[in-house]
Amino acid sequence: MEIKGAETTKYALVTGATGGLGKAFVEALAGRGYHLLLTGRSEQKLLDLQSELKEKYPELSTRIYPADLSSGADRYAMMSKIAGERIKFSLLANVAGADIQKGLTEYTQEKIAFQCRANFEAAVSLCHFAIENKAERLEIVNVSSVSGIYPMPYFAIYSATKGALTSFSQSLREEMKGKNVAVTAILPGAMPTREDIKEQIKGQGLWGKLAAKTPQEVAEVSLKAVKKNKRKVIVGFWNKVMRATTWWIPTAWRMRFIAKRWSKISKDAF
Length: 270
Ligand SMILES: NC(=O)c1ccc[n+]([C@@H]2O[C@H](COP(=O)([O-])OP(=O)(O)OC[C@H]3O[C@@H](n4cnc5c(N)ncnc54)[C@H](OP(=O)(O)O)[C@@H]3O)[C@@H](O)[C@H]2O)c1
Description:
Elements lengths: L10 E4 L5 H12 L3 E6 L2 H14 L5 E5 L5 H13 L4 E6 L14 H24 L1 E10 L12 H20 L5 E7 L7 H9 L1 H7 L3 H13 L4 E3 L2 H10 L4 H12 L8
Parallel strand pairs: 1-2, 1-4, 2-3, 4-5, 5-6, 6-7
Helix pairs in contact: 1-8, 4-5, 6-7
């Protein structure tokens, strides 16, 4: 069924919509008048979010698509459903991500595939889908992480997939020049979204306090940046300072330091 006014109405697809940062994107986009397509794994969380939005923004249409984005089958089912609705995208926010943190030998084969696919493959695949189904102008926000800047022992797959997403995003931006598609990689530092991350930020003392940004701040920075088609944005003054002042430290020293810190943390949040 064709959606009336599909060419003029603005639709945004947000992955990880039910998480801390995803919800902040959803709120910021609803405030800007976007109709919303929301995905996450849990149907119940999506239904709850949808009814909150219906109450707050009755004029907006919100559609939900429960899907495990690490599964090709789930992604294709979601894409065919959306394509059948003939929706043209004005914005894609690739927010979903899995931050499993442990040494490689502690992983199962399934978890390795899950983390790589959820963090990288799914974002790439949805960029392709959104470009194929773009409105006149399309903005793509790929949520990466400052953790993707350097190799991070004991957070190795996460940092590698985020590094890959940052790299991919920048290349895609170049490929899309002159095609009315803006692509921005967002590199946030810590955000107090889940309880375990809040505890981690607290444990970092003054640095944690200075460097952490709220999901609302990160969503706002992201939407302003993609409007200007910025290539890559490290969010927050202190995260920028960290990047600018530590580049000269030899990689071997940096990794030794990171390994010492991160080997004490093990989490399997998903
Ligand atoms: N929080 C931080 O400190 C921080 C820092 C830098 C970067 N980031 C990045 O920011 C993004 C959001 O982080 P957050 O803290 O808001 O996370 P979060 O609160 O844990 O939310 C994660 C969201 O992603 C969804 N999701 C996870 N795996 C999925 C999968 N396989 N398929 C589909 N949906 C999936 C979750 O849905 P379900 O709950 O239904 O599974 C949820 O909506 C992530 O990409 C993360 O790597 C976070």
